[in-house]
Amino acid sequence: MNRARRKGAIQVLNELLSPVTASTFWSDYWERQPLHVVRELPVWCSELPSIDDLDAIISLMPPSGAEAEGLRLVRAVAGRVEDSSIARGPDGRPDVPAVYRAYAQGWTVVVNRLHLRSAPVARLAAAVADETGYGIGVNLYCSPARSRGFPAHADGHDALLLQMDGRKTWQVYPPQYDLPLEDSDVEIKPTELGEPLLQATLARGHLLYVPRGFIHAGATESELSMHLTLGIHPTRWLDLLLAALRVAADHSLDFRRTIPAAELHNPATRAQIGIELERLFQSISGGDVAAHAVERVLSLPPHLTPQAFDRHFRAVERSGDVRGATMIARRPGLRTRVVREENRACIVFGAHRLRAPLFVAPALDFISSRSSFRVDELPEVLSGSSKITLIRRLIQEGLLTIAEDGDRTNHHFGAVRESTDRPRQP
Fold first, then answer.
1. Number of folded domains in the chain?
2. Rounded to the nearest 10 degrees, how much is the dihedral formed by the CA atoms of 284, 289, 290, 296?
3. Domain that holds residue 360
4. Please, what sign has the CA dihedral across residues 235, 237, 240, 242?
5. Residue 5 resides in a domain
6. How many whole angstroms separate alpha carbon 389 and alpha carbon 41?
7. Is residue 90 included in any domain, yes or no?
8. How far is it, in rounded angstroms, from Cα 29 to Cα 419?
9. Structure pTM?
């Protein structure tokens, strides 16, 4: 299924995958085969955390709640993952010297959801999410020499591994279960692994792509390894089908009725249950249901990708300087959609929405469909002064920003490139 890329979107994947192009990645590798990219660490990666930043990342982790569980100490033992408890200081934060000791004893340090703890990582995740339209989560893995953090395993998402320090050797094998879901319980059969499709030693700057479901295992040898894993979490047909069922349940009492327990346990009634299920499935067909299901999927809160930390207070301060010729850019990582109500229209981004009179909807559609534009390019449903007022409001609400130095994008990773609409991926 081809999807057109938003006009002006940054080709950050070209930089992440270079010298392989993003178009080659989508056509030849995505969900098909692993890829090992050999190159020096790109200059833009200097913003990203290295092992020298790991002390601060661990020290500043929150003392309690779900985010406190983002730190793990793991090692592979007899084909399984062993976790070590995290000692904590009087304030509830991780006891960093205890983490040092565990690391020295061969434990791998894992920092999950690094995009919630590092501004440069958040900007990278947001830029990749903005280009792909998929959720992006970033984890950090730091392993001492002569260690293995995880046994051979398969993930329910695609992964890009960016080597930041040291070296790690990987073997990637074909899947034993194609395209698993995130919660699929995939049992790896070690005796059936066979020869690896790819064996590669990642050095600083290298990148490894592991498609969803492909079995992989990594280990260090004579030196440490630290890498960032960008987990790519796409929308699947199952997600859309589940959303369609919820839409149907909202509008039809049949989906909300209770099945008598006796019928479920009675073998004689199961054939009738199958007939009724088929009838219910047939009732959800149609363009209206599909459109509402897509709307529901788009309205789900982005639990993976953060909004980029992009120094927005300066743009808010400068919002009063906006004029018709001012170049405006969408802030990375923010998905938008326009909803029309009875006499109002609103533009939705993240957990926020801005309402306006219905006649403003074409201008909101224009803003939602572009990564960058000039203020006076907005549709003529608004006067010149009204265009400026709307853009200033959306800057102050956090959706838009003033493009830096006249560029058509606000990009923190490498060269800014002008782009055109083209098919992005199958």
1. 3
2. -120
3. 312-406
4. negative
5. no
6. 43
7. yes
8. 22
9. 0.84
